[in-house]
């Protein structure tokens, strides 16, 4: 059974695209424009039993910056 789930609810597609990830693989999603990209990574920490996230700005086709925007524990307001 999948532990992580991603979807693209708004796009030019007629159907909602989805993806799944497991505790062992995690899940990464990426959205881009010609000015750069934003990626979200989810992973499971076996030691703590928590699901962690990172949100990054990343270059796309030579444009943009590589900056960590946020990180923390999924479902919690405070940082990891």
Explain what the structure shows.
- The chain has strands spanning 4-8, 17-21, 27-33, 36-45, 50-58, 67-73.
- It is mainly beta.
- It has one domain (23-80).
- Strands 3-4-5-6 form a four-stranded antiparallel β-sheet, with no helix packed on it. A two-stranded antiparallel sheet has the order 1-2.
Q: Strand-and-helix sequence, N→C?
A: EEEEEE
Mean pLDDT: 95
Please give the largest β-sheet: 4 strands, antiparallel
State the helicity in percent bands.
Answer: under 10%
Strand coverage percent: over 45%
Query: What is the terminal-to-terminal distance?
Result: 26 Å
Which segments are poorly predicted (pLDDT under 50) over 5 or more consecutive residues?
none
Count of individual helical segments: 0
Shape designation: globular
Please tally the β strands and state the result.
6
Radius of gyration: 14 Å
How would you write the strand order of the largest sheet? 3-4-5-6
Structural class, by secondary structure, is mainly beta
Q: What's the number of domains? A: 1
Report a brief summary of the structure.
The protein is 0% helix and 54% strand. The protein contains no helices and six strands. The radius of gyration is 14 Å and the shape is globular.
List the helices and strands and how they pair.
Elements: E1 4-8, E2 17-21, E3 27-33, E4 36-45, E5 50-58, E6 67-73
Antiparallel strand pairs: 1-2, 3-4, 4-5, 5-6
């Amino acid at each position: 059974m999948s532990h992580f789930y991603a979807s693209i609810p708004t796009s030019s597609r007629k159907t909602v695209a989805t993806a799944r990830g497991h505790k062992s693989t995690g899940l990464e999603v990426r959205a881009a424009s010609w000015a750069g990209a934003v990626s979200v990574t989810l992973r499971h920490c076996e030691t703590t039993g928590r699901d962690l996230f990172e949100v990054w700005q990343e270059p796309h086709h030579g444009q943009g910056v590589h900056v960590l925007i946020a990180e923390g524990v999924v479902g919690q307001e405070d940082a990891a």
